[in-house]
Amino acid sequence: MTNACDDPSHQFMCREYEHLPALIALWGGLSWQKTQFFFGVESVFLAGIGVALKETFIEGRVPAHPAFLMLMGASVFNFWICYVWFRTNRSNREYLNPLLQRACEIEVALLNETATFSVQRKSLRAPERKRHSSEWWERHLPTGFAIAWAATLLAAASHGPYWGWALTTLLPSLLALLLFERCHPSRK
Hints:
The protein is an all-alpha fold. The protein has one domain. The protein is 79% helix and 0% strand. The chain is built from 6 helices and no strands. Helix 1 packs parallel to helix 5 (135-157). It is elongated and about 75 Å long.
């Protein structure tokens, strides 16, 4: 049996295929580093607010006016960070998926069977209940932090006269992010 790369018509695809694993590993590694960065930043900010307002959350004390203003500002800022994190995760996937798809196409063309990347791509196309990891969860991890920020803001508001302020912070922030997302859809 001859090697598919010995055929002159397949040599370009073979060279392309040789470089794809490095590109896929690069994008996967960059994605992981970005996620670790954002996860760390969000965790530190959320923990910092928790420590700064521990009397409010543990003992139910009404937060001081400047402390609540700080929480409102931190919430808006961190909603934006969560959105940037979400967009970064989605962008990484938008670059990684075509690389995986191209690797699959080359494998099918050269090998006439499934190989390494074809198996990975098939796993990603499987229904979520049959996967061991989920692209959706990876992309929406920032949503969990945004919900935690909203819950923190509402919890602090529940201990004092700040409900109106909390709602006038949350609703416009959510509306702004939804409008921004609507104006900047994914690159599919």
